[in-house]
Automatic annotation (TrEMBL):
Purpose: Thiol-specific peroxidase that catalyzes the reduction of hydrogen peroxide and organic hydroperoxides to water and alcohols, respectively. Plays a role in cell protection against oxidative stress by detoxifying peroxides.
EC class name: oxidoreductase
Organism of provenance: Paenibacillus lignilyticus
Pfam families, per the entry: Redoxin (PF08534)
GO molecular function, one term: peroxidase activity
Record domain Thioredoxin: where: 23-172
Official protein name in the record: Thiol peroxidase
Family assignment from sequence similarity: Belongs to the peroxiredoxin family. Tpx subfamily.
Length: 172
């Protein structure tokens, strides 16, 4: 049974239980299986050798998640070809594609954790009662070592965009 952590995150002040480990800088990034479409599945290996900025959002169709993904899409344009900017949510792949088209987001790769929540559980951000992933940022170097972690304590708050981008820039 996966580790449960209660009291480390909230939604509008109400405690949430996160499932999975608390990853730290220096940890090896866990592999994952995420859907790029209903049939196409990608894993950590698909981004081998690249610096990966993994932006985790509960649902792309909410205000903070929308703003977070748009911000990283803007930043992605300046980071170069050796950086993969990924947004992970449990939204269905066709909902993610619809949102990208409507928002004009084309630099961030949206990936879905809807099938079995294996990303959320492996990265310690799966919210037990909601079956959503908690807002978080992971920066992973080209050797798949975690170099930056921010798991937000309150779901409705924005991450520290500057710190995440600076962590990526330090690796490229």
């Amino acid at each position: 049974m996966a580790q449960e952590r209660t009291g480390v995150a909230t939604l509008k002040g109400n405690p949430l239980t996160l499932i999975g480990p608390e990853l730290k800088i220096g940890d090896q990034a866990p592999d994952f299986q995420l859907n790029k479409s209903l049939v196409e599945v990608v894993s950590l290996k698909d981004f081998a050798g690249k610096v990966k900025l993994v932006s985790v959002v509960p649902s792309i169709d909410t205000g903070v998640c929308d703003a977070q993904t748009r911000r990283f899409n803007e930043e992605a344009a300046t980071l170069g070809d050796n950086v993969a900017v990924l947004t992970v949510s449990v939204d269905l792949p066709f909902a993610q594609a619809r949102w990208c088209g409507a928002a004009g987001v084309d630099k961030v790769v949206l990936l879905s954790d809807y099938k079995n929540n294996n990303f959320g559980e492996a990265y310690g951000v799966l919210i037990k009662d909601l079956h959503l992933d908690m807002r978080a940022i992971f920066v992973i170097d080209g050797n798949d070592t975690i170099q930056y972690v921010e798991v937000l304590s309150e779901m409705t708050e924005h991450p520290n965009y500057e710190n995440a981008i600076n962590a990526v820039k330090a690796l490229v």
